[in-house]
Amino acid sequence: MSKPEKLIIDGKRLDGRGAQDLRPIKFKAGVLKRADGSCYLEFGGNKVIAAVYGPREVHPRHLQDASRAIVRYRYNMAPFSVEERKRPGPDRRSIEISKVSRESLECVILQEMYPRSAIDIFVEILQADAGTRVAGINAASVALADAGIPMKCLVSACAVGKVDDTLVLDLNKDEDNYGQADLPIAMTPSGDITLCQMDGHLTEDEFRTALEMAMEGCRYIHQLQKQALIEKYGQMVSPPAQEAPAAETAEVKEEIFKEDVEEFKEQEQQEQGGEANE
After folding, report:
1. In 10 A of CB 84, how many CB atoms?
2. What are phi and psi of 41, to 5 degrees?
3. Does the chain have fewer CB atoms within 10 Å around its N or its C terminus?
4. Which CATH fold topology does 8-236 show?
5. pLDDT, tens digit, for every residue of 27-47?
6. Which residues touch 60 (CB under 8 Å, ≥6 apart)?
7. Which of 22, 27, 28 is nearest to 44 (CA)?
8. CA distance 52 to 143
9. Which of 223, 227, 214 lies closest to 22 in space, CA to CA?
């Protein structure tokens, strides 16, 4: 694929977005029945599924930590996720992304609550379109919450890049391939940064501006993450019943009590009749 002559034309990017616009994002929690927690995410052209298993016993046992749970994170791109078929199995890139992604999440997990156990996170990239590491972190964070893993908070992530000397939020594939810089960021809602990597060159002022843009994007993604969990678990909680007047409540209880007494009497009569026949 040849490099586009311009990546930004008349203030608009090739996909029609402005410099500070995110691609369309869709979360869905609890998509896998056999996982303890799971999440499906569409982030632009990225399609990601994350699954969490545990806490569970660590095997082999010599890997156990007597004071806390260990967190294991596996990032993998499916062979069909890219245009040119990827060779199956782990490579240096996936090992590196697995490491930094694990570190971005384990700092918010209350590991001390589960000594001698493991929390396994699996992230599978079904379709790749730039920004797969931040997409994986976003999906994994929701999957951890779906699994009921005790956490301080969710972690949200997005990337900022420099394209045609302009800072842009959430790089697409062409911008990622041909841009001047790429800065993936993961952070908590309080603003604590759990992941910060950079590929390329930014001035000090550009870095500060890019960081502010990334934080704004992460705040928006955090709202979507919360909404995905509310959509799943909000349906499981019935709305509070309206309190009935005291007299009505007493009457209802009295009627229920009378019905229970009558049912008890009928059962007693049936049992006595059965004994007489015998």
Report:
1. 5
2. -135, 130
3. C
4. Ribosomal Protein S5; domain 2 (3.30.230)
5. 999 999 999 999 999 999 999
6. none
7. 22
8. 6
9. 214
